[in-house]
Amino acid sequence: xxxxxxxxxxxxxxxxxxxxxxxxxxxxxxxxxxxxxxxxxxxxxxxxxxxxxxxxxxxxxxxxxxxxxxxxxxxxxxxxxxxxxxxxxxxxxxxxxxxxxxxxxxxxxxxxxxxxxxxxxxxxxxxxxxxxxxxxxxxxxxxxxxxxxxxxxxxxxxxxxxxxxxxxxxxxxxxxxxxxxxxxxxxxxxxxxxxxxxxxxxxxxxxxxxxxxxxxxxxxxxxxxxxxxxx
Length: 231
Fold this sequence. Notes:
Elements: E1 2-3, E2 9-10, H1 25-30, E3 33-34, E4 37-38, H2 41-56, H3 62-65, H4 73-78, H5 81-84, H6 87-93, H7 100-128, H8 134-151, H9 162-183, H10 187-199, H11 202-205, H12 223-226
């Protein structure tokens, strides 16, 4: 047990004055720092998407978006191309899922995020541009989907910030947009997005590694592996 600045003790060897680096992941995930304040960036993002869909009538479209897919099976299987990229990330980080609140946050993000992101970026936005050529619809929605992650979520998640985060999100967005155009259904992109969020251990993705280092209570933060966690 090492002593830290205020006289408190910490089993994790923290040197930070006034507290321990083992801040709960849930708090970092939902209340990352921005200009010295705690702002719930991911919650603001989710609520914004939900409100836009509510005012635009998108919630009533989920039954249509989840209808059985049309077209060749190859397009449906293509949805899982991004998912395969996160298998190594999961294998390196699954030991962090060792506490009930960690598992709860991991599952909550994986369940909520695909419903809102697929419903808005692929469903509502692509449907609103249905009169455009298919390639232009996919390019338009994919560009803004890619840009939203480094500009909004990248505030708290280093893995989502910068040009690499933009390129990775564009890659996954382009595949899911193409699948929706070809199959007229979001059933498989929804499932793929859910699996991708599980495999990339999203609770790590939103750790602010600039301020928090080794977190021995949930495993070691793996900056290199989370650099590909970009959905």
